[in-house]
Amino acid sequence: MQQVVRRWLTGAIVGVSIVTLSGCGTLFYPERKGQLSGNVDPVVAIANGVGLLFFIVPGVIAYAVDFSNGTIYLPSESSASVDIHHLDDAMDVAALEKLLSDKAGQPVSLENELLMMEEVASLDEALAMVRMSGVMDEERLATM
User: Fold this and answer.
1) Tell me, what's the pLDDT at 143?
2) pTM
3) Residue-wise pLDDT tens digits, 18-37
């Protein structure tokens, strides 16, 4: 009986440590990665605080992971914007370049090796990718 309790307790401690070491906000809201600042999400902060109950190190690491990833912050509505355009398969490269040039207000070439196009599942994921891309970082950092 004592050995069963000891195994269960060991498993529980290992499980809690793994979850807190990876950062709760990173697990709960991976689409928030890349946020620079904002209001702290109380749910994530409390979940990380639970890690402080199980020794100090797992909780501190959970907070560090979430702050470094930006996943502890609530999503802000004004930090980035994404226009949604549903593209049809018949659109050629020239038409897409013209559409992007009109929206960006400057010439856009799809032949640039620094250009990356990716299909995303949701608007939140697209906003997180815009934040992580470094677009307009100078403007955002100047307001901090």
Assistant:
1) 60
2) 0.44
3) 665 566 787 788 888 877 77
Which pLDDT score is estimated for 99?
A: 83
Looking at residue 106, the DSSP 8-state letter turns out to be S
Residue-by-residue DSSP string for 5-72: HHHHHHHHHHHHHHHHHH-HHHHH-GGGTT----PBPHHHHHHHHHHHHS-HHHHHHHHHHHHHHTTT
Give per-residue burial for 113-135: e unless 16+ CB within 10 Å, then b.
Answer: eeeeeeeeeeeebbbbbbbeeee
| Rounded-to-integer distance, Cα 65 and Cα 46, Å | 14
Tell me how crowded residue 62 is: count the other CB atoms within 10 A of its CB: 29
Which pair of structure tokens corresponds to residue 81? Answer: 């914007």
